[in-house]
Amino acid sequence: MLRTLAPDGLRFAFGTLTVLPVKVTRWDRDAARGGMLWAPLAGLTVGVLAAGAGLLLLALGAGNLLAAVATAAVPAVLTRGL
């Protein structure tokens, strides 16, 4: 049971909550449990990518409004609007 938490749960979390391409090999209760335990990491990854996009635009001299829109759009795109 614990061995499913690492690889299968991680793939389950990213495969379910994001559009990032992962190969989910198991769709059972143990994998879903592991996936929900790894869900905060998927959210953190999406948040870091969104913040990175906003900071990159600000560093490149884009306006605050464009950086804010990009920061809000990245999670919408990466999670299919979830």
UniProtKB/TrEMBL annotation:
It comes from the Bacteria. The lineage of its organism: Bacteria, Bacillati, Actinomycetota, Actinomycetes, Kitasatosporales. GO terms for molecular function: adenosylcobinamide-GDP ribazoletransferase activity; cobalamin 5'-phosphate synthase activity. GO terms for biological process: cobalamin biosynthetic process. Keywords: Membrane, Transferase, Transmembrane, Transmembrane helix. InterPro entries: CobS. The chain crosses the membrane at residues 37-60. The keyword Cytoplasm does not apply. The keyword Cell membrane does not apply. Coiled coil: none annotated. This is Adenosylcobinamide-GDP ribazoletransferase.
